[in-house]
Amino acid sequence: MRAEKGIKVAVYGAGAMGTVLGAFLTESGVNAHLISRNREHIAALKSDGATVLCVADDTEKKIPVTALLPEETSEKYDLIFLMTKQRENKKIAEFLKNYLTDGGIVCTTQNGLPEEGLCEILGRDKVYGAAVSFGATFIGEGKVKLTSALSAMSMQVGGYRNDNAKLPLLAEVLQGIGALCGNMEFLKTTDNLAGARWSKLCINAAFSGLSVVTGCTFGELSKRRKSKKIALGIIRECLAVSKSLGVSVEPMQGHDLKKLLGQGGLFQNLKGKIVLPIAMKKHALLRSGMLNDVENGRKCEIDFINGVVASLGKKAGVPTPLNEQVVEIVHGIENGLYEISYKNLDFFA
Prior knowledge:
Structural class: alpha/beta
CATH topology of the largest domain: Rossmann fold
Order of helices and strands: EHEHEEEEHEHEEEEHEHHHHHHHH
Largest sheet: 8 strands, mixed
CATH architecture of the largest domain: 3-Layer(aba) Sandwich
Radius of gyration: 19 Å
Distance between the termini: 60 Å
Strand order of the largest sheet: 5-2-1-6-7-8-11-12
CATH superfamily of the largest domain: NAD(P)-binding Rossmann-like Domain
CATH class of the largest domain: Alpha Beta
Strand content: 15-25%
């Protein structure tokens, strides 16, 4: 019997990404509960299990899972993965703290920098984070589409300003997914969570933000001349802000962003333009979850992605005009001022 069998795990926010993680945890032998407010989705998960369409690998997984609505939650968990949007984090954290065991922890996989706000409610010893490198699209009624290749999936986990005492628990729970996906590089642990967060934020700010602006996939953005140039500029702004905060950014997809892009210059510009499409190759089909939100008439998390870079840059005296422009255009799209179009990149003059 695997050790994880005795560990109770919940995935709170079983949308696209949460359903993939919860289903894969279950298949790897973890006692995981998938929790969502989407009643039709939960009903389908209960009756038919989770269907994960792995489009990059041309495979399909159908996995029986345990699914619950929030009001059906009755147990206490050793580990809760928080996978909702950030807009209601305070309210959700207040709810989740009642469903943690004495030594239980919350690991947020949310984009941006969500940990500090969670610590105010849960305490630092209970807050861990994960920089997640895979993408998924929600189909509905128990079905999701995994848009990253199985071999490209990864999670880098660590504690937020605590002693990492629960890192072995996180590793124990997640390690089986790598074997399941044939990807032994899936799980990485770090004592530099801030560096991992900023590394992921660089990619999110560049590609997720521009995906909303243009409607393009990450692969399209990394290949087309204008979007590639702007994406590299956004990454440089993120690196400049993180440097001003004293954060040492972790490598992303095997590439040291600081060495690759940190100083600018002709050589690094050329190298960046060559490496960017290669780095995004296994995520080429990925389109931003924020784009899905906007297309469905919902407000997205742009203020927690490019917006947080611009806000911290302003406090540190670091210019972030590209990130600010992304925020302005995305809010304009949300409010009906602009249409989603590649032509929006003309605003980045």
